[in-house]
Amino acid sequence: MLFHYKSALTIFALSFLSSISTVAQSSLPPVIEWKGKSELLIARPDNPWITPAEKSNFVTTPGYNETMSWFRKLTAASPLLTMVSIGKSVEGRDIFMIIASAEKTVTAAALKKSGKPLMLAQAGIHSGEIDGKDAGMMLLRDIAFGKKKDLLNKVNLLFIPILSVDAHERSSPYNRPNQRGPQKMGWRTNAQNLNLNRDYAKLDTREVRAVVQVINEYDPVLYMDIHVTDGADYQYDVTFGGLGQQGYSPAISHWLETIYKPSADKDLTANGHIPGPLLIALNDRDFSKGNLLIMGGPRFSDSYGDLRHIASILVENHSLKPFKQRVLGSYVLLESTLRLLATEGLSLKQMTQRDRAGRPAKIPMRFKIPQMKNAVSFEAQSNLQNSDSAVSPPDTLKFSGIASRILKSTVTNSDYIEWLGEPLAEKIANYKATEPLEWITRPKGYWIPASCDDVIERVKLHGIRMEIITQPREVTVEMYRIQDAKFENEDHKTLPFEGHMQMSGSTKSETRKQLFSAGSAYISTDQPLGDLTMVLLEPKSKDSYFSWGFFLPIFQRTEYIEAYVMEPMAKKMLEESSALRKEFEQRKEQDKTFASDPDAILAWFYSKTKYYDDRYLLYPVGREL
Ligand SMILES: [Zn+2]
After folding, report:
1. Do the Cβ atoms of 108 and 217 come closer than 8 Å?
2. Ligand 1: distance of its center to the CA of 42 in Å?
3. CA of 284 to the centre of ligand 1 (A)
4. Structure confidence by residue, pLDDT tens digits, 501-520
5. 320 CA → ligand 1 middle, Å
6. Which residues make beta-bridge pairs with 96?
7. Which H/E stretch holds residue 254?
């Protein structure tokens, strides 16, 4: 133990020039020394376009102002690069995007017209996980003034260097204790304390609204979101992937698995990196119980992209690898992806068209996951739909692990893990949440009443086509009555999650003739975003507006009846209906509390009258079948 402690300190001192000495950094597991061909990508000190990270030998990353003024100079000096603002944060910072293209005009329409595959890559959605920004700066420099001009012969690139711009400026050496550099890094959530990578379905934040607007406008064929992991130790430095079989885009997933992954793995390996699959330790500690592949739902960028039928890649660089290694790995992956799109862009476009043309008769809302409740982290659990159903047995994953041992804590008096820094080849169980638990059939369309204008507005922001009616219309629709409603905030039962009180409940269908007023929206599911529409509007979906608590007013009763009115009415009702008499007797027998509660009895009769609020607990969105 002493040895590792010491070696960690030595390496720390070497790679960080003793510039930070937080307890957390010196407690990180031993670093595995790394050298790779990708180090040749680093600019020489006399290069006028050397990036701030390169200049510091990857000890630091530049702040927002320094980054953007560097980009301003670079883009002004190169006809291949254009810098545009795609929106402003709550603190007033522009969210910039760089368009890299050899086309003369770079409007969305012109890029579309060029026919070249378009890639959208973003960094800093979690602004402390910033590798992608520094990698993108190097790559764009090399496109503009280095040897990478040819990249733009056959592809176009949109690059967002910092998405969570405000959080990027909440910079500190104390923000990510499990991460090996840079010296200071941004914060995970934005200025409103919202996690941008939980916002893709609900669209609360300006940052994610800006990206979704870019997706709507430019329609990229591939979308990459670059992060850094937390958690367990292993040998891989760059882990990445799409959703695979768990997704809503089977043709795209097949392309990602069979064409993208082998090509990216090959390029990363050739440059000295250690590519791996996306990893979540099932027991939230090590991989002794296996790995778990989850379907997070469209609150996440990758699930969202997949549900929109865009090839979407989540990149998770390993937090315990040094910043330099992670940045270079990101560079290699970005370049590799662009090179592949140059040759395989057409095949990806074909797969994309196939998925966008699909109109599955039913789509899954939830997936089975292994029951290891206490073992799965809160972060994982909050995104999952736990089920008691049995799941498929796992397959086996060849795993490049790191040796570890379990120690007894003198602080908590329980076990904790120590990573030993020694490579280990293992075979581990690989669970995949691929089995649907609940299906929803596809209606012809959905009706959202004008009264839910906020939801209509958000659905529109996704680029979903809709008709806003200008005259009231009566329509026969299926609607849901919500039963057993409860707040659903996972572990933190009564606390809000991402600024919302989440709801769950079961649904009972009713067929109704419903009058929708002018201003109501009709959304056909016969469109490429039809699947997304279903996931946003079906209450069973964990990422629906219902589940995110946008329909809380339906849980309130707002009209009442006085006992002196109800009393004679109840008497008359009993006289007139023997069926009601029978039901009343049964109800009293079954429920003694009810039988002895006059208010409950009158309320029961009230619910049987025409005076009762017919819309109480009625989910106001209608399904036209
Ligand atoms: Zn992240």
Report:
1. yes
2. 25
3. 16
4. 999 999 999 999 999 999 99
5. 14
6. 85
7. helix 250-255
Going from the Cα of 470 to the center of ligand 1, the distance in angstroms, rounded, reads 43
* Residue 223 amino acid letter: Y
Ligand 1 centre distance from Cα of residue 108 (Å)? 28
Residue with tokens 């958000």: 458
**What is the distance in A from the centroid of ligand 1 to the CA of 300?**
10
Q: How far apart are CA 490 and CA 310, in angstroms?
A: 30
Give the Å distance between the CA of 125 and the centre of ligand 1. 7
* Distance, CA of 504 to CA of 497 (rounded, Å): 13
pLDDT at 378: 41
Strand 118-123 to 222-228 pairing: parallel
Give 159-212 pLDDT, tens digit per residue.
999 999 999 999 999 999 999 999 999 999 999 999 999 999 999 999 999 999
Q: Which residues pair with 524 in a beta bridge?
A: 445
CB atoms inside a 10 Å sphere around CB 601: 17
Q: How far is CA 343 from CA 143, 256, 329, 447, in A?
A: 18, 14, 22, 43
As to burial, measured by CB atoms within 10 angstroms (0-12 exposed, 13-18 middle, 19+ buried), residue 354 is: middle
In the reported structure, the alpha carbon of residue 126 is separated from the centroid of ligand 1 by a whole-number distance in angstroms of: 5
- Cα separation, 324 vs 598, whole angstroms: 73
